[in-house]
Design brief:
Blueprint: E1 2-7, E2 13-25, E3 28-37, H1 39-61, E4 67-69, E5 76-78, H2 79-84
Antiparallel strand pairs: 1-2, 2-3, 4-5
């Protein structure tokens, strides 16, 4: 499986995921290709990454003290540690 970009007849380009399989049918070698349009998935991945980066910069560049509340136990977790990946037991 691999990802690439295909071009439509109208020359617009779109992202695809290609699944390629080699088989032999009646002693004839064949490749079977399943091509999936992943344009919407790529858009969603890009939007998610942009949101993650935006919120990370908000927390990292803020001079304020920020906390998250752990929904499992109700304890406060410093956001600055959470955003930079510091793990602590509270």
């Amino acid at each position: 499986m691999f990802e690439t970009v295909h071009q439509r007849k109208n020359t617009t380009k779109y992202d695809v995921e290609v699944h390629l399989q080699f088989i032999e049918l009646d002693r004839n070698p064949l490749f079977i290709a399943i091509i999936v349009d992943i344009t919407e998935r790529k858009k969603a991945e890009k939007a998610l990454l942009e949101n993650e980066n935006r919120f990370r910069s908000i927390f990292q560049e803020s001079a304020s003290i920020m906390y998250l509340i752990n929904p499992d136990n109700g304890q406060f977790m410093p956001v600055c540690n959470f955003m930079v990946g510091v793990k602590r037991s509270y």
